[in-house]
C-alpha cells in the first residue's frame, strides 16, 4: 500500500449491519502488521441498481445514500456525485447498511404482494395493464377472451379504445376515460 495520508474505504455491496466496522478493524490490523499507521475512514454507499440497467440507474437514480463516520468524510464522497443532481441522504454507517436491507425487504414485499394479486386475477379472469410496452399495446383483445373466458380488463395506460373493447364484449376500466361494462360483475369471495 502506497498511501501517505488518511484512507477512505467505500463499500458498495449490500452487507450485514456492522460489516464496515469489522472491515475497518481488519484493514487497520493488516496495515499495522506492515508498520503503517494510517487513519482508516469507512463509508457505506449502497447502490440501488436494477439488473440490466446499472449504468442508467447510476446516472439517473432516485437517491444516493452515504453512511460515514464524520460529516467531513461524507462530504468528500458526496462531491464525487455532485454532477449527478440526485437527492443525497447522509447518515451514519450502520443506518446506511440497514437502509439497503430495508429497501430490499420492501421491494420483496411489493413483489410478493403483486404476485398474490396476479394469482387472484387469474382465478377471476381479470387482467391489469400497467405498462405501455409495444407487445402489450398491440396484444389482440380476442386473445384475452380466448384465454380468460369473460375478461375484466383494467388498463392503466389506455392501450385500447372503447370501440375495440365493446366489439369483444368485455368489461373495461381505464384511467381518465369512461369505463365499459358489458355484463354485471358478481362479488367474488
UniProtKB/TrEMBL annotation:
One of its GO terms (molecular function) is UDP-glucose 6-dehydrogenase activity. It is an enzyme of class 1 (oxidoreductase). Keywords: NAD, Oxidoreductase. Pathway: Nucleotide-sugar biosynthesis; UDP-alpha-D-glucuronate biosynthesis; UDP-alpha-D-glucuronate from UDP-alpha-D-glucose: step 1/1. Its EC number is 1.1.1.22. It holds the Pfam family UDPG_MGDP_dh_N. It comes from the Bacteria. Residues 94-126 form the UDP-glucose/GDP-mannose dehydrogenase dimerisation domain. InterPro entries: 6-PGluconate_DH-like_C_sf, NAD(P)-bd_dom_sf, UDP-Glc/GDP-Man_DH_dimer, UDP-Glc/GDP-Man_DH_N. Residues 4-79 form the UDP-glucose/GDP-mannose dehydrogenase N-terminal domain. Belongs to the UDP-glucose/GDP-mannose dehydrogenase family. Catalyzes the conversion of UDP-glucose into UDP-glucuronate, one of the precursors of teichuronic acid. This is UDP-glucose 6-dehydrogenase. It comes from Bacillus pseudomycoides. The lineage of its organism: Bacteria, Bacillati, Bacillota, Bacilli, Bacillales.
